[in-house]
Request: fold
Amino acid sequence: MNPRVIAKIIGLLLLVSSSMMLPPALVGFIYKDGDILPFLEGFATLALVGAIPFFMYRKVEAELKIRSGFLVVGASWLIVGLAGALPLYFSDHMNLSITDAVFESISGLTTTGATILTNIDELPHSIKYYRQQIQWFGGMGIIVLAVAVLPMLRIGGMQIFKAETPGPMKDQKLTPRITETAKALWYIYLGITVMCTLSYYMAGMNMFDAICHAFSTIAIGGFSTYDDSIAHFNNSLIELIAVIFMAIAGINFASHFLAWKSASIRTYLNDSEVKVFIGFLAVASGFVSAQLYLTNTTDTLYESIRQGTFQAVSIATTTGFTTEPFYLWPGSLPLFLMLLCVVGGCAGSTSGGMKVIRVVLLFKMSMRELYRLIHPHGKYLVKINGKTVNYRVLDSVSAFFVQFAFLLCIFTLLLTGFGESLITAFSASLASLTNMGPALDEAGAHYANISDAGKSVLTIAMIFGRLELFTLFILLIPAYWEY
Reply:
């Protein structure tokens, strides 16, 4: 482990983060509604702090080992999250405490979409844009962006890519070189964002809202420029576009790349995870819509389908957009919707949750054990897309499930210890750990009423969820620090 190399990379990330302060400042200048200075102050602060280690160790050349990769990723998300809080803290329009500013920043960067703000409609355009922007960069991962830059510094990037990329199967490359892989992912990500922006604009949004909501949709973040989220527009076409692009963003971006490269949808049709994911969204939407209609929560069948489909897809993909206060819906619907986010989207997507592939593997492993009880001497292999899954992947999936359940219990207990109700504690912990955002009870509309201690716990939960547990857990093992 080379501390100088790590310091150099952290410095680079802070310099990149400082550049993220300039677009919101430009937006503030265009709309002339204030709050330009906080972004300029944030830019100057981060540029100065980042330049010191970067230029001090700019001539250091060394291969970044896999162990160092985990440390860089874990530290980077925390540092960049803290850096992103600066303009929110400096802003006089919100008067946020440090805890609230960090919570909002980490929520955006991890694409969780949980907010402590209650007057979003009245915020300056610069702040509104900034909240959406940090989600967009966080969606694909600022680390992956840095992977495209690191080779120029003669530092290997595959180690960071493995630690950052979501999903249990991380050794597949889209291109022979990791730099080209990172660039390919960003091109696809940018292209889909542009298509979503144009779709929103043609459906009735103004260009500012279209860009901001496209950022949030493709990042599967859930932040909006309005307190009422997508309900503000009351436009069924906008909701349909959101549903389509949330589903697209929930699919593995490697699949998007391969489908584009081959100019064929066969890539999706041959991917069992994609098929399960689409089926999962369809079944969830049908169930929620039927419950809304049967409980007379909505006036017509059309409204039941409209609201049920949107909310089911939004929560199942862990986006967190809302058109109705689902946490007030009758019966078991709120709990059912919350449980949808446990599954999440496909591996390699911007979705949170456990990922569909892990759930599929857990189901197949459980069925394998049942078959073994019937035929003790039989040999049963777990396969995906016709290929046998390596036992190490299966072990990883089992360990992930145990760690997920363990953290959910710990975070829930901590929140209840800080005075939150059991429903609030459980749902907020689940929403943060899966990077979904909206929860139940006190955390339904926003998180402003959660205690500072509770917000700090949930901030940690969001980072754990975004880095898929292992990346941070490994830093807590004493053996990791042994040389």
